Amino acid sequence: MVKSGLIAAFAAYAHVAQAACPFMEADARDVPASHPQIKRADGSYSVPSNTDEFMAQFEVNDTDVYMTSNTGTPIEDQESLSAGERGPTLLEDFIFREKIMHFDHERVPERAVHARGAGAHGVFTSYGDWSNITGASFLSTPDKETPVFIRFSTVAGSRGSADTVRDVHGFAVRFYTDEGNFDVVGNNIPVFFIQDAIKFPDLIHAVKPRPDSEIPQAATAHDSAWDFFSQQPSSMHTLFWAMSGHGTIRSFRHTDGWGVHTFRFVTDEGKTKLVKFRFRTLQGKASLLWEEAQVTAGMNADFNRQDLFESIENGMFPEWVFEAQIFEEDDQLRWGFDVLDPTKIVPEDIVPFTPLGKLTLNRNPRNYFAETEQIMFQVGHVVRGIDFTEDPLLQGRLFSYLDTQLNRHNGPNFEQLPINQPRVPVHNNQRDGAAQMYIPLNTAAYSPNTLNSGSPKQATQKEGRGFFTAPNRSTGGRLVRAVSSTFADVWSQPRLFFNSLLPVEQQFVINAMRFETSQLKSDVVKNNVLIQLNRVSHDVAVRVAEAIGMTAPEADDTYYHDNTTTGVSVAESPLLKIDGLKVGFLTSNSASGDTASSLKAALKDVNVGFVVVAEHLGDGIDQTYSATSAVQFDAIVVDGSASALFAAPGSLANSNATASNTTSSWRSTLFPAGRPLQIVQDGYKWGKPVGVVGSGSQVFSAAGVQAGTPGVYAFGTNGTASIVDQLSEGLKTFKFLDRYPLDN
C-alpha cells in the first residue's frame, strides 16, 4: 500500500515538476500606489538606514583619549588604592570596584544550543515586485535593498568547541525591513530531528555531553545520542543529512540555508500561499572529509569563522539567492506526505524554487559580543505578508526562542540592544523593566486612550499596514496529545535522500555511521539503530552492521523505493566561485622565489589566496612547515627545486645525533620529521588538487601519488597562466572523489 501510494504521488505531481513557476515576473503587479512607509515622531517618513550609519550611533572610539570611569570621570586604573605602600586595598577604591565588578559580569549565559557561531552584516536586494503573492514590503519593489545580519553556528557544542565538528549548522537570517524585523531562523539542512517541539529538551539532553563527565563535546558518537535517534525514528532523515557532507561543510560560505518549516505568504487582500524558504549559496556547495575535519579542529578550531571574516575583509563578499517553494493551501497532503511535518522536504523536482532576491554579506562585526553574541533571533519576528502554519515544531519554537532570551539577557528589553533594534521607530505601551534604554514620553501607556489622542493607534490589515493573521486559518477538531497520523512515514524520505547521492557520497554516509556507532557501548542501542536503518535501507543496515560486528535484521521493504530527487548532493556540481580558496606552495628557503611571486600575483587576480611555506620565515615566505598542515589549503603545489625536503622518511633512530636545522633534508629541527611530504600525502588523500612545478617525479613517487590521474598536475615548466588555469579548474572540482574506495 505504501509503495503504490508513493508511486501514485510521484505520478500525480510529475506535471508540476515540468511546469514553469507561476509566480515569476509575467504575473507580478506594479508597486501599489499607496504603499506608505513608517512615520517618525517628527512627521518624516523613514527607510532603513544603511548598517554603517545605524551602528555608528553606538560605536565608541577610544583613540587618543584619557581613561574614564563608567560615569565619565577621568581616572587611572593600573594600581589599587591601598593603606600605605604595603598595606591592604581599601574598600573605598571605587575605581577598582567598578572595574572588577564589570569584569565579573562580562559573560552572559551562552545559548542552550547554537552557542558556537559567527556572523556578518549584509544587504538583501529584491529581484522584483512580489506583491501578487505577499504583502511583505521588503519584497514589494525591484532592486529594493534591506539590511541583513546572518549568524552561522553549530548546534550541539559549547562556545569553546571547534567549528568543524560534524553537526547540523545554524543559518539564521535577520531582515531589518522598513516594516520591522523578519527572522528566518533555520539550518543548513532542510529538515529537523523531531516533529513536535515538546521533544526538543529530550533531543538536546541526548546529544549533549554526558552529565557526569561532560564528555564528549560537540559530538554525537555516544550512546545517549544514538539511543534517542533509534527511539525517535523521526530523526532518521536529519541524521542521514548530518552524516553526509552537509554535516562537515568546507565553510559557512559553501552551504545553503533552509527555513525548515512551511510558512505562509499573505497578500494585502488576505490571500495565502504556502512557502518553504531556502538561501542557495552562489559560491557552490563544498564539504570536508571527516578525517580532514577532525584534523582541522585540532589545527584551527576557528576555521569557519576565520574563513568568513577574512573573505569579507578581503572584499570577496559571499552571496546567496533567497528563494521559495510556493504552493497552494490545498497541496498540504498532495504528494503523499504532510508539508507541515518538519522532518519532510518538498522535493525540488516537484515544486521548483522561485528566486526572490539576492543576499550579500559585506561587513564584518566591529565587536563580536555586541553584535554576533547579543543578536536575538526569534521565529516570531515576522512582518506583514508572512504568517505561520500549524507545524507543531514551529509552534513550539515561537514560545521557546522568546523565552530563552529572558534567561540570556535578564529582562524583557533585549530588543533595545543595538544589534536587535529594528531600523524603524518603535511605538507601543511596553514599559520599564531592567536595562530600559528609551525615555517614553506618552503618559497614557494603555489602549484605548483619549489622553494621547488614541496613540499609538492599532495598525490593522486596512489601516496602518499592520501585521494580520491569514484569515483562512482554522483550528478545528478535538483536543489531542498525539502526533498527526499524516506524519507517520519517517523512513521514505531518508531513503529518497540516500538514493539521490553519488555512490561515493553514499559511502561517506556509511563511513560516518560506522565511525559513530563503533563508539557505542550498548548492544541494545546498536541493535535498535540497525532496526531503524533497516527500515530505510537493508543495504545501509548491512554495511553498518559489518563494521560493528553485528548482524542486520532481515530486509523490511515496507518503505523501500528507488525514487530520487535533485539538489541534495554536495559533490555532484563544481563550485560556482573559487573566491577565498587557498593554495599552499611548498618550497625551501634555498630555492628561488621567482615562481612563487609570479603565481601569487596571478592567483590574486582570480581571488585565490597563495601561501608560501618553507623551513623558516624570510622574504616571500608566509609560514613555516612546523605550523602547516594540508587542512589549511584547498590545493597544494610543490616547488620541484625543493624536492630534497620530500624524500621518503627513513628511520628516526639516533635522531638526536643526526638531526639539524638543515634546509635540504626531510629530517630537521625546524619541523616535525617528514612534515613537507606529509602535507602532500594528506592533501592527496583528502581529495585536493596537488601539483609540482618543475621536476615532480620524485615528489609524486615518495608521496604515493600517481601522476596523470584526476587532480594531479605535473606542471613542469608550464607558464604561470597555464598553471593558474589548471589550478582554477581543480579548485572548482574541489574534491577528486575517484580516490576513495567503495564497498562492493
Shape: globular
Distance between the terminal alpha carbons, to the nearest Å?
A: 32 Å
Helix share bin: 25-40%
Global structural class:
alpha/beta
Instruction: Determine the strand fraction and express it as a percent band.
Output: 5-15%
> pLDDT under 50 segments (min length 5)?
1-48
Give a quick account of the main beta sheet: strands, pairing sense, barrel closure: 10 strands, antiparallel
Mean pLDDT: 91
What are the salient characteristics of this protein?
globular; 26% helix; Catalase-domain-containing protein; 744 residues; ten-stranded antiparallel sheet; alpha/beta; 20 helices; single chain
What can be said about this structure in brief?
This protein has helices at residues 2-12, 14-18, 51-56, 94-104, 200-207, 223-231, 236-243, 290-299, 303-313, 368-373, 392-409, 492-499, 503-517, 523-536, 538-547, 594-604, 655-658, 675-685, 697-703, 720-733; strands at 38-39, 45-46, 117-126, 145-154, 169-177, 180-187, 257-258, 263-266, 272-281, 319-327, 353-363, 386-387, 582-586, 609-614, 623-624, 635-639, 690-693, 712-716. The protein is α/β, with parallel strands linked by helices.
